[in-house]
Amino acid sequence: MFLGSTALPPLDSESSLMKEFARMSPGKDLAQGLFLQLAESQHPPRTIKTHLPLSLLSPDLLNTAKVRKHTSFEEMKARDNLFTETQEEDVGLVNLEAKRQHGGFFRKGNTGSWRGELTEAQDHQLNLWMDRHLTPSGIHFREPVD
What we know:
Layout: H1 16-24, H2 34-40, H3 59-70, H4 73-78, H5 85-91, H6 96-102, H7 120-133
């Protein structure tokens, strides 16, 4: 970012920053962006931290950050319900029996735990749908689709 600045002394190939860059990004060109390439070498989730004001960053970056925060598990769990208790009965969008049985937000943060909430018939129907629609798409999942 500031590596081409005339106000700073130039970096030589023996500097610790350049050695670390060469170690973490073999075959990469420094001119193509030091911090982006260093971020690529990190394990996910990758977060690029910057001191730049948001006005100098891509407008899409702020929207992406907002979506990521809004859809995070912690935010969804802490968020107020869409309806109050009296509105739920009037609107009819909430299955009140399921809410009474399981609570308002029954996700525990365990991957695949939702399958335990299905009946055998629902699980079978879901498996048939996934075989028909997802397998031919070429989408690969980390966990096998049972």
